């Protein structure tokens, strides 16, 4: 008799989970443990830096090795009497939120490994030594570190497939559908963590370009748009180059610095978005002009 389709997918889930736990073992028990030992004894790299490189990989490894994989194995051994995995995956799903921290830290971790490999030859040698071992399968540390980032989307795909292949009256249908919904929410949670990290990173770059003015640096601000603009001077009918940063709560009217030491712009005026009005002008001499008026003052500007 041919195996039912849903059992094949459940078996694929089990097999990929076994391979995944081996990869996590390599990251946590080999790379992390040996680099940490090196940091403690030889002091070639600070312990804190090694911790930052591996984020919460130990918790992720323990969860999969000691809980999820054994539960899956039990299920597959008992499949003929109890063909279901939906309830086990429901138990797994909330814990996958742990991945948010790992995923958020991933780019920073890879940067640290690159930077310290250049800075500390003993650190680089130890990584190269571990990478030569058979267990690494000729792949780099960075390659292995990518695996947890890709694992949740993999669960989502396998489970989608599983639900699709389940017979309509399968005792696992309700649980499997609920599990899929939960995994989908966790994937969203992890993507949101990445998006938030990128937003803060981009915001910080903007603050550096503005010279880190105290009253402007705020993590809750959102940059909406930025770009060059011409300021029209009605007194002598001329224009001068300025630059605007529009945030959710303020408009920064800036002057590009000629000598860019540190900051790229100097903030000339900060206008609150609350109560601000924008009005287009029909000016034949200066096309594409508009008025921005706020509590602080009114500006006549010309776009490209």
Automatic annotation (TrEMBL):
Keywords: Cytoplasm, Cytoskeleton, Metal-binding, Phosphoprotein, Repeat, Zinc, Zinc-finger. GO terms for cellular component: cytoplasm; cytoskeleton. Gene3D superfamilies: Dbl homology (DH) domain, Pleckstrin-homology domain (PH domain)/Phosphotyrosine-binding domain (PTB). InterPro entries: DBL_dom_sf, DH_dom, FYVE_RhoGEF_PH, PH-like_dom_sf, PH_domain, SOS1_NGEF_PH. The keyword Repeat applies. Residues 222-304 form the PH domain. Residues 5-193 form the DH domain. PANTHER family: FACIOGENITAL DYSPLASIA PROTEIN, FYVE, RHOGEF AND PH DOMAIN-CONTAINING PROTEIN 2. This is FGD2 protein. It comes from Chloropsis hardwickii.
């Amino acid at each position: 008799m041919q195996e039912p389709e849903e059992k094949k997918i459940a078996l694929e889930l089990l097999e990929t989970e076994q391979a995944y736990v081996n990869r996590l073992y390599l990251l946590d028990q080999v790379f992390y443990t040996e680099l940490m030992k090196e940091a403690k004894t030889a002091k070639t790299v600070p312990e804190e830096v090694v911790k930052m490189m591996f984020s919460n990989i130990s918790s992720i490894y323990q969860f999969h090795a000691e809980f999820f994989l054994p539960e899956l194995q039990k299920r597959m051994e008992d499949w003929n009497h109890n063909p279901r995995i939906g309830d086990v995956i429901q138990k797994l799903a909330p814990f996958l939120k742990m991945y948010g921290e790992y995923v958020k830290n991933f780019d920073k971790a890879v940067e640290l490994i690159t930077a310290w490999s250049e800075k500390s030859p003993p650190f680089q040698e130890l990584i190269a030594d571990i990478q030569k071992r058979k267990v690494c399968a000729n792949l780099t540390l960075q390659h292995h570190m990518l695996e947890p980032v890709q694992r949740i989307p993999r669960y989502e795909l396998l489970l989608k497939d599983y639900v699709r292949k389940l017979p309509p009256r399968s005792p696992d249908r309700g649980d499997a559908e609920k599990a899929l919904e939960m995994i989908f929410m966790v994937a969203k949670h992890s993507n949101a963590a990445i998006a938030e990290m990128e937003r803060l990173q981009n915001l910080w770059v903007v603050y550096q370009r503005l010279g880190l003015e105290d009253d402007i640096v705020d993590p809750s601000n959102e940059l909406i748009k930025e770009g060059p603009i011409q300021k029209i001077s009605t007194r002598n009918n001329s224009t001068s180059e300025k630059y605007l940063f529009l945030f959710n709560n303020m408009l920064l009217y800036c002057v590009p610095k000629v000598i860019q030491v540190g900051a790229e712009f100097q903030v000339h005026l900060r206008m609150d978005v609350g109560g601000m009005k924008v009005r287009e002008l029909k000016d034949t001499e200066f096309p594409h002009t508009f008025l921005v008026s706020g509590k602080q003052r009114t500006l006549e500007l010309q776009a490209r």
